[in-house]
Amino acid sequence: LKMIESFKAGPLDNNVYLIVDEATGQCAVVDPGPDSAYILDAVTARGLTIAAIVNTHGHWDHVTGNGLFVRASGAPIYRHPLDEDLALHADQVAALWGFTAEPSPPATHALEEGDTFELGPHRFALLHVPGHSPGSVCLLGDGVLIGGDVLFRGTVGRTDVPGGSLPQLLDGIRAKLMPLPDDTRVLPGHGPETTIGRERRANPFLDNSSD
């Protein structure tokens, strides 16, 4: 999808996504991770206006670039309230893993199940899929799922972290993601993109025998 661009950032090889509305020159930055300054430079060089910062969840490697983009643009931050604490204490959480991170500024807008995130003509439905973190959300629009750390190619988000729950994560994936069309593109928080159809057929974490 031409309007979504992907960048790599930080020691955990985070995927940072840019939703671009070419007509207005506005963009939304999704999950600005560590070492995102070069992404800001690219946005600035193109003359794009940063209209929003969206976090799929509050883990340090997905929010530590928030401050950088807020200082550059004053853009509002969208995040699920259940992950607010994680984001505000990103420095402490990162330190537990041996990394340094800047805490996120407070969110200005809540992202909750049933909400719609809009950028120009682009509309994304919000799906709350906890289990990797309490406030993990996916954005679904135009045949694309920006999935955060919920679903990956051949695996799912790790759940051995505070607030993690494998049963909860798998329940949410089965209930909210697996019913999507096969050709729905999944843009994950790390690693290569995939499709819902591929994961329904081949993901070892999902019980495919009932399909």
Describe the protein.
With 211 residues, the chain is α/β, with parallel strands linked by helices. Helix content is 25%, strand content 29%. The protein contains seven helices and 14 strands. The protein has a six-stranded mixed beta sheet with strand order 1-2-3-4-5-6, covered by helices on one side. It has a six-stranded mixed beta sheet with strand order 7-8-9-10-13-14. A hairpin with a 2-residue loop joins strand 9 (137-141) and strand 10 (144-148).
Features:
211 residues, alpha/beta, 6-stranded mixed β-sheet, globular
The general outline is globular
Radius of gyration: 16 Å
Mean pLDDT: 95
What is the straight-line distance between the termini? 28 Å
- List the quaternary state of the chains: single chain
Discrete helix count: 7
Strand-pairing-aware structural class: alpha/beta
Summarize the amount of helix as a percent range.
Answer: 10-25%
Strand content: 25-35%
Order of helices and strands: EEEHEHHEHHEEEEEEEHEEH
Low-confidence stretches: none
For the largest sheet, list the strands in their spatial order: 1-2-3-4-5-6
Total number of strands? 14
Tell me about the biggest sheet? Answer: 6 strands, mixed
Short description:
The chain is of the alpha/beta class and 211 residues long. The protein contains seven helices and 14 strands. Helices cover 25% and strands 29% of the residues.
